[in-house]
Specification:
The protein is mostly helical and 292 residues long. The chain contains 13 helices and 2 strands. The protein has one domain: MetI-like fold, CATH 1.10.3720.10.
Length: 292
C-alpha cells in the first residue's frame, strides 16, 4: 500500500510542482513589485524601493474603492443571474427529449466565442444609431436609448453581455451534475407523493450542491477578472461607471505606467476573491463549514 502511494506521488509530484510554481510565481512577483517604483520599458535595475508607498497610494485613491464597489455589484448581479438561469435551463433540458441535443449545443456556443468578439458584437448591438437594441425598442413603440453613453444603461450592457456569454458554463456544469444523480432516490420521492418542485428543491439540488458551490466559486473568480469584454464595450465609461477593478489595474499599469501601484491593487483584488471563494465553497458542506 505504501509502495503504491510512493509510486502515485512520483507520477503526480512533478505536475503538482509545475502547477504550484505557475501559480505562486506571479503572486510573489506582485508582492515584490508592489514595493517598487518601476515603469515598463526601463530596466529592472533602475527600479526604486518605495516600501509601503504604493499600497498607501492605492488605498488612498477613491477611484480604487469605486472600482471595487462596481466590481462587487457587477459580480453579484451577473453571477446570481447566471446561476439561476443556468440551473433553470439544466433542469428544463435534463430529460432526453427529441431535439434537446440541438438546443444544448446552441446554448453552449456563446461561451466558445472569444471575449474580444463578444465585446465587439454587443458594442454593435447597443450602438445608438444602428444597433439592434434600439431597433427592437422602436418596433415596440419605445424611444431609442444611448446605451453606452448613459452610466446606468452602460452598466446594464456589460451585465447583459456577461450573462449571455457565461450562463452556458453554469448550464454545462449543472447538466453534468444532474446526470449523475441517483434516479432511484428521485423515484422514491415521487412515490412518496413529492411534486416536481419538491423533488427539485429537496432532493435534486441538495445532491448536486457541491457542484453548485464549485461552479459559483469559478464564476465569482471569472467575474472579478473579466477585462476584454468591458475594455472593448465601454472601456470603463462613461466616466468610470463601468470601470471594474481589473480594468482599473490595467489602466494604472499600462496607461499610467504605475506598475507598483497596479500590483498593490491586484493584491487587494486577490484578497477579495479569496475571501468570496472560500465563502462559496462553504455551500458544499454548510453543516461543517468545510468543502467536501
Amino acid at each position: 500500500m505504501k509502495t503504491s502511494r510512493w509510486i502515485a506521488a512520483l507520477y503526480i509530484g512533478p505536475a503538482v510542482l509545475v502547477m504550484a510554481a505557475a501559480c505562486l510565481y506571479p503572486v510573489l512577483s506582485a508582492f515584490q513589485l508592489a514595493g517598487y517604483d518601476w515603469s515598463m520599458g526601463t530596466p529592472w535595475a533602475s527600479a526604486q524601493w518605495v516600501g509601503w508607498d504604493n499600497v498607501i497610494q492605492a488605498f488612498a485613491n477613491p477611484r480604487v474603492w469605486n472600482s471595487l464597489l462596481t466590481t462587487l455589484l457587477f459580480a453579484a448581479v451577473c453571477v446570481t443571474a447566471e446561476m439561476l438561469l443556468g440551473i433553470a435551463l439544466a433542469l428544463a433540458l435534463e430529460k432526453p427529449v427529441k431535439g434537446m441535443s440541438f438546443f444544448r449545443t446552441l446554448f453552449i456556443l456563446p461561451m466558445m466565442i472569444a471575449p474580444i468578439a463578444v465585446g465587439l458584437t454587443w458594442r454593435y448591438i447597443f450602438d445608438a444609431q444602428f444597433g439592434l437594441a434600439n431597433a427592437v425598442l422602436k418596433l415596440l413603440g419605445l424611444s431609442a436609448q444611448t446605451w453606452l453613453a448613459d452610466p446606468q444603461l452602460a452598466f446594464m450592457a456589460i451585465v447583459i453581455a456577461d450573462i449571455w456569454q457565461w450562463t452556458p458554463f453554469v448550464f454545462i456544469m449543472m447538466i453534468a451534475a444532474l446526470a449523475g444523480v441517483d434516479h432511484s432516490v428521485i423515484e422514491a420521492a415521487r412515490i412518496d407523493g413529492a411534486s416536481w418542485w419538491q423533488q427539485t428543491l429537496w432532493v435534486k439540488l441538495p445532491m448536486v450542491m457541491h457542484v453548485i458551490a464549485i461552479t459559483l466559486m469559478m464564476r465569482l473568480i471569472d467575474a472579478f477578472r473579466v477585462l476584454e469584454v468591458i475594455y472593448v464595450l465601454t472601456f470603463g465609461g462613461p466616466g468610470d461607471s463601468t470601470e471594474i477593478l481589473a480594468l482599473h489595474i490595467y489602466k494604472t499599469a499600462f496607461v499610467g505606467q504605475q506598475l507598483g501601484v497596479a500590483a498593490a491593487i491586484s493584491i487587494l483584488l486577490l484578497l477579495v476573491v479569496t475571501v468570496l471563494s472560500l465563502g462559496a465553497l462553504r455551500l458544499s458542506n454548510p453543516m461543517k463549514g468545510e468543502p467536501q
